[in-house]
Design goal:
about 0% strand; single chain; mainly alpha; about 80% helix; rod-shaped
């Protein structure tokens, strides 16, 4: 009977060690950097930053034009390139968002 108890306790201990083994090991990350992004993610962040900078500059230009700090002629010269920059970034971001909406709509 004591042999059966010892065998049962040993088997239980082995089962616990087997199950706990992944938790007892030191995790090995592929990289120590927490903020490392893949190339597509990095490109998306760059586009979002470009969009945000262009929209912020447009907002500031509009404000300066309304308050009289920027003349009509200067406004017309500056607004076009800023709008193009914002539109370029927005267009580059669109396909990914459309694909995401399609996946949601299709239930994937």
């Amino acid at each position: 009977m004591t042999l059966a108890l010892a065998l049962g306790a040993g088997l239980a201990l082995l089962a616990v060690l087997f199950v706990a083994r992944p938790f007892l090991r030191e995790p090995q990350a592929a990289s120590d950097r927490l903020d490392e992004l893949s190339a597509p993610e990095r490109r998306r962040v760059e586009l979002m930053e470009q969009r945000d900078r262009a929209l912020a500059a447009l907002k500031e230009l509009e404000f300066d034009h309304r308050t009289g700090k920027v003349t009509d002629e200067d406004y017309r010269q500056q607004v076009g390139p800023l709008r193009r920059s914002a539109a370029t970034a927005l267009r580059a971001l669109e396909p990914r968002e459309e694909a995401q909406h399609e996946r949601i709509a299709s239930g994937r």
